[in-house]
Amino acid sequence: MSAILACIGGEEIYHQIAAGRILAESLGRKSTPFGQSSEIFKIAPQTPEDAEFFLMPRCPGGANKLKSFRTNARANLFALKDLGVTCIFSWGAGGAITHNFAVGDMVILSDLIDQTYLREQTFFTESPLGFLRQFPVFCPPLRDLLSETLGEMKLPFKTTGIAAVREGPRLETPAEVRMLAKMDAEIVTHLFVPEMFLAKELQMCYAAVCYIMNYAETGSRHHPFAAGGLFGGLRQRSDDDKLADVIDNLPDVAIRLAKKIQDATKNAKPNCECSKTMLQHIQEYDLPEDWHGWFDEQAKTK
User: Fold this and answer.
1) DSSP per residue over 113-143, as a string?
2) Which of 6, 116, 130, 151 is the most exposed, having the fewest neighbouring CB atoms within 10 Å of its CB?
3) pLDDT tens-place string over residues 115-134
4) Please, are residues 161 and 187 in contact by the beta-carbon 8 Å criterion?
5) Position with higher pLDDT, 65 vs 21
6) 192: buried, middle or exposed (CB in 10 Å: 19+, 13-18, 0-12)?
7) Distance in angstroms between the alpha carbons of the first and the last residue of the chain
8) Residue-level pLDDT at 46
């Protein structure tokens, strides 16, 4: 079976669909054993070379926007897996802790520090099936394809970054940000957890891009700055302009990435190990081949 991509983003997806930047067919919300998923959109190929993929806002936008810890990530990931999705590209905003990142940079995450405590982090709350290794954190081949895509589009991006995921919805205090910096975190965000952990439990590839929306509060009057900014041109683009460019380009990133995944599958390039994350549990507990049956087996593995 060929790889199928799904992109998970924020409420900007609705704005881009309304503006005609994304031509999408709504599949509605899906019922799952974990409740209703967010709305799912199917993106048809725009040219014969393009690949079909799915698009999902994490939650409704506007005044109905949910706090991060109330997003039903389990229903979202279950619904996408049920549609045959094998690869997840997730994007979202974060604040720069390090001075190496500037507003408008797109950072391909390489690791994360989970500081959440209110979210359901596993599908398997009543069994040991969620006891999984978390290395590599993100799918290496999918990260490579993302890097190729962003490079070809000449977008400002970094190939690695460590994100600290906080519970929210409030922003962090200066002391908390300084603490995160001592933990080697380079970005602070409220997103990507538990999506990444849940994707592993369903043996799906997962990669994430965190776009820098602001600078995390450290108590300093000096913000990070873009490389070359000190001796660059006399006119510097505003942070708002750079951020708008990033968000406007995300649909094109998804379209190009879907095609790259399709081409890589056709060319039988080396696969990652994401499709085997549950192999030890499958063998140890004699789990059925059909992943739907894993949820029926929870009671047997207590």
Assistant:
1) EEE--SS---S-TTSGGG-----SSS-HHHH
2) 151
3) 999 999 999 999 999 999 99
4) yes
5) 21
6) buried
7) 33
8) 83
Q: Is 15 exposed, middle or buried (0-12, 13-18, 19+ CB in 10 A)?
A: middle
Structure tokens at 200: 């592993």
Query: What is the Cα–Cα distance from 143 to 165, expressed in whole angstroms?
Result: 19
Residues 6+ away with beta carbon under 8 Å from 282: none
- C-beta separation of 95 from 212 below 8 A: yes
The DSSP output letter for 294 is H
Secondary structure of residue 10 in the 3-state scheme? coil
pLDDT (tens digit, 9 = 90+) per residue, 194-241?
Answer: 999 999 999 999 999 999 999 998 876 666 555 544 444 434 578 889
Rounded to whole angstroms, the Cα distance separating 248 from 250 reads 6
